[in-house]
Amino acid sequence: MNLIFYFCVYMTVFYLPFDLFLKPVATDREIWFGLALTGWWAKVTEPLHWFIYGAGAYGFWKMKSWMWPWAAVYTAQVVISMFVWNIVNQGVGGWRAGGVAAAVLAIPMVALWRARPSFGGTASP
Protein backbone atom coordinates (compact mmCIF):
# COMPACT_ATOMS: atom_id res chain seq x y z
CA MET A 1 0.00 0.00 0.00
CA ASN A 2 2.92 2.32 0.62
CA LEU A 3 4.06 2.06 -3.00
CA ILE A 4 0.54 2.73 -4.25
CA PHE A 5 0.29 5.72 -1.87
CA TYR A 6 3.55 7.20 -3.21
CA PHE A 7 2.44 6.57 -6.78
CA CYS A 8 -0.83 8.43 -6.07
CA VAL A 9 1.11 11.33 -4.52
CA TYR A 10 3.45 11.51 -7.53
CA MET A 11 0.55 11.47 -9.97
CA THR A 12 -1.39 14.09 -7.96
CA VAL A 13 1.43 16.52 -7.24
CA PHE A 14 3.74 16.20 -10.23
CA TYR A 15 2.50 14.31 -13.26
CA LEU A 16 -1.16 15.31 -13.63
CA PRO A 17 -0.55 19.07 -13.16
CA PHE A 18 2.10 18.80 -15.90
CA ASP A 19 -0.25 16.72 -18.04
CA LEU A 20 -3.17 19.10 -17.62
CA PHE A 21 -1.44 22.49 -17.76
CA LEU A 22 1.75 22.01 -19.79
CA LYS A 23 1.28 19.10 -22.21
CA PRO A 24 -0.02 20.26 -25.59
CA VAL A 25 -3.51 19.08 -26.54
CA ALA A 26 -2.14 17.55 -29.75
CA THR A 27 0.06 15.10 -27.81
CA ASP A 28 -2.27 14.49 -24.89
CA ARG A 29 -3.46 10.94 -24.22
CA GLU A 30 -5.54 9.37 -21.44
CA ILE A 31 -6.30 5.67 -21.12
CA TRP A 32 -9.66 4.50 -19.79
CA PHE A 33 -10.47 0.77 -19.69
CA GLY A 34 -7.63 0.15 -22.13
CA LEU A 35 -8.91 2.57 -24.77
CA ALA A 36 -6.92 5.70 -25.58
CA LEU A 37 -8.53 9.12 -25.63
CA THR A 38 -6.51 11.76 -27.45
CA GLY A 39 -6.61 15.51 -27.96
CA TRP A 40 -9.41 17.41 -26.28
CA TRP A 41 -11.15 14.20 -25.11
CA ALA A 42 -7.99 13.38 -23.16
CA LYS A 43 -7.67 16.91 -21.80
CA VAL A 44 -11.30 16.93 -20.63
CA THR A 45 -10.93 13.62 -18.73
CA GLU A 46 -7.63 14.51 -17.01
CA PRO A 47 -9.33 16.23 -14.06
CA LEU A 48 -11.13 12.95 -13.32
CA HIS A 49 -7.79 11.11 -13.17
CA TRP A 50 -6.44 13.94 -10.99
CA PHE A 51 -9.38 13.56 -8.62
CA ILE A 52 -8.98 9.77 -8.46
CA TYR A 53 -5.27 9.93 -7.67
CA GLY A 54 -5.77 12.78 -5.19
CA ALA A 55 -8.50 10.85 -3.40
CA GLY A 56 -6.28 7.75 -3.45
CA ALA A 57 -3.34 9.65 -1.95
CA TYR A 58 -5.53 11.10 0.80
CA GLY A 59 -7.34 7.83 1.42
CA PHE A 60 -4.11 5.81 1.74
CA TRP A 61 -2.46 8.52 3.87
CA LYS A 62 -5.34 8.54 6.37
CA MET A 63 -6.34 4.89 5.73
CA LYS A 64 -9.93 6.02 5.26
CA SER A 65 -12.64 3.36 5.46
CA TRP A 66 -14.12 4.44 2.09
CA MET A 67 -10.94 3.26 0.38
CA TRP A 68 -12.28 -0.27 0.74
CA PRO A 69 -13.48 -1.48 -1.75
CA TRP A 70 -12.72 1.49 -4.05
CA ALA A 71 -8.93 0.98 -4.16
CA ALA A 72 -9.46 -2.63 -5.25
CA VAL A 73 -12.17 -1.63 -7.74
CA TYR A 74 -9.93 0.98 -9.37
CA THR A 75 -7.08 -1.53 -9.48
CA ALA A 76 -9.45 -4.00 -11.18
CA GLN A 77 -10.10 -1.33 -13.80
CA VAL A 78 -6.32 -1.08 -14.32
CA VAL A 79 -6.10 -4.89 -14.68
CA ILE A 80 -8.82 -4.80 -17.35
CA SER A 81 -7.16 -1.82 -19.03
CA MET A 82 -3.79 -3.55 -19.30
CA PHE A 83 -5.40 -6.59 -20.90
CA VAL A 84 -7.55 -4.59 -23.32
CA TRP A 85 -4.70 -2.18 -24.19
CA ASN A 86 -2.48 -5.07 -25.28
CA ILE A 87 -5.24 -6.63 -27.39
CA VAL A 88 -6.32 -3.39 -29.06
CA ASN A 89 -2.69 -2.35 -29.71
CA GLN A 90 -1.32 -5.56 -31.24
CA GLY A 91 2.13 -4.01 -31.63
CA VAL A 92 2.34 -3.76 -27.85
CA GLY A 93 2.21 -7.52 -27.33
CA GLY A 94 -1.24 -8.95 -27.89
CA TRP A 95 -3.27 -11.07 -25.53
CA ARG A 96 -0.24 -12.89 -24.05
CA ALA A 97 1.44 -9.67 -22.92
CA GLY A 98 -1.94 -8.41 -21.74
CA GLY A 99 -2.47 -11.59 -19.75
CA VAL A 100 0.94 -11.29 -18.09
CA ALA A 101 0.39 -7.61 -17.25
CA ALA A 102 -3.11 -8.33 -15.94
CA ALA A 103 -1.86 -11.26 -13.83
CA VAL A 104 0.90 -9.15 -12.28
CA LEU A 105 -1.50 -6.28 -11.48
CA ALA A 106 -4.10 -8.71 -10.14
CA ILE A 107 -1.77 -9.34 -7.19
CA PRO A 108 -2.19 -5.85 -5.66
CA MET A 109 -5.87 -5.92 -6.68
CA VAL A 110 -6.49 -9.05 -4.60
CA ALA A 111 -4.32 -7.72 -1.76
CA LEU A 112 -6.34 -4.49 -1.66
CA TRP A 113 -9.59 -6.45 -1.71
CA ARG A 114 -8.40 -8.53 1.25
CA ALA A 115 -7.13 -5.47 3.16
CA ARG A 116 -10.53 -4.39 4.46
CA PRO A 117 -9.44 -4.38 8.15
CA SER A 118 -6.56 -2.03 7.29
CA PHE A 119 -9.03 0.59 6.11
CA GLY A 120 -11.01 0.66 9.31
CA GLY A 121 -13.66 -1.79 8.10
CA THR A 122 -14.51 -5.12 9.58
CA ALA A 123 -13.02 -8.41 8.49
CA SER A 124 -15.00 -10.25 5.83
CA PRO A 125 -16.69 -13.50 6.82
Question: Could you outline the blueprint of secondary structure elements for this entry?
Answer:
Layout: H1 2-21, E1 29-32, E2 35-38, H2 39-62, H3 67-88, H4 94-114
Antiparallel strand pairs: 1-2
Helix pairs in contact: 1-2, 3-4
Plain-language structure description:
This protein is flat. It has helices at residues 2-21, 39-62, 67-88, 94-114, and strands at residues 29-32, 35-38. It has 125 residues and is mainly alpha-helical. 70% of the residues lie in helices and 6% in strands. A two-stranded antiparallel sheet has the order 1-2.
Give the amount of beta strand, in percent: 5-15%
What does the radius of gyration come to?
16 Å
Provide a count of the helices.
4
In N-to-C order, the SSE pattern is HEEHHH
Poorly predicted sequence stretches spanning 5 or more consecutive residues? none
Q: Tell me the strand order in the biggest sheet.
A: 1-2
- Globally, the shape reads flat
Any idea how many domains?
1
Structural class: mainly alpha
Q: Estimate the helix proportion, in percent.
A: 55-70%
Compute the separation of the termini in Å.
Answer: 23 Å
Mean pLDDT: 92
How many β-strands, per DSSP?
Answer: 2
Biggest sheet, in brief?
A: 2 strands, antiparallel
Task: Give a quick set of tags describing it.
125 residues; mainly alpha; two-stranded antiparallel sheet; 4 helices; 6% strand
In short:
This protein has 125 residues and is mostly helical. 70% of the residues lie in helices and 6% in strands. It is flat and about 45 Å long.
